[in-house]
Amino acid sequence: MPPSNVANSLGTPRGLHEIAERIGGDQPAGMVFKSRIPTGRHYSEVEEGGPGPMNLITSRILWLRGLEAGINQGDGVDTHSRYIYIHGTQREERIGEPISAGCVLMRNRDIIELYDQVRAGDLVWIGD
């Protein structure tokens, strides 16, 4: 099992997943979500502060569920209970850098396009 699959590792869990939930389809691009609920604010309206780069959850959320027992599903490795998403970010210039807490970050226009093409239950493979 990859170390990134372990709870509290802040790594992106590898392996086979499914889209458990699609969230935010009726929201405008750039909407900020907190606990999967739209805040009513665009990321440009959110004051940034604190140590390190703040990474917001924006535009759309695809919440993942691991499908491999003991790898990304179950005690200590569960992708869904770790709240691992594919989502938009206000840090589009940093795509590809490790700035999330395990989520897969996308440009806002790209996550909106992907969101419109996938459904709950669709499979997602996360590899190295």
Folded structure, characterized:
The chain is 8% helix and 31% strand. By secondary structure, it is mainly beta. The chain has a single domain (3-126), classed as L,D-transpeptidase catalytic domain-like. Strands 1, 2, 3, 4, 5, 6 and 7 form a seven-stranded mixed β-sheet that branches. β2 and β3 (37-42) form a beta hairpin. The longest helix has 10 residues, at 108-117. It is globular, with a radius of gyration of 14 Å. The two termini are 13 Å apart. The mean pLDDT is 93.
What is the rounded Rg? 14 Å
For the record, the CATH architecture stands as Beta Barrel
Helix-strand pattern: EEEEEEHE
Overall structural domain count = 1
Q: Report the count of strand segments.
A: 7
Decide which structural class fits the backbone: mainly beta
Percent of sequence in beta strands: 25-35%
Report the biggest beta sheet as strand number plus sense, adding barrel if it closes: 7 strands, mixed
Global shape? globular
Mean pLDDT: 93
What is the chains' assembly state?
A: single chain
Report helical residue fraction: under 10%
**In terms of per-residue confidence, which ranges show pLDDT below 50 for 5 or more consecutive residues?**
none
What's the level 1 CATH class? Mainly Beta
Summed up, the helix count is 1
The fold-level CATH name is: L,D-transpeptidase catalytic domain-like
For the termini, the CA-CA separation is: 13 Å
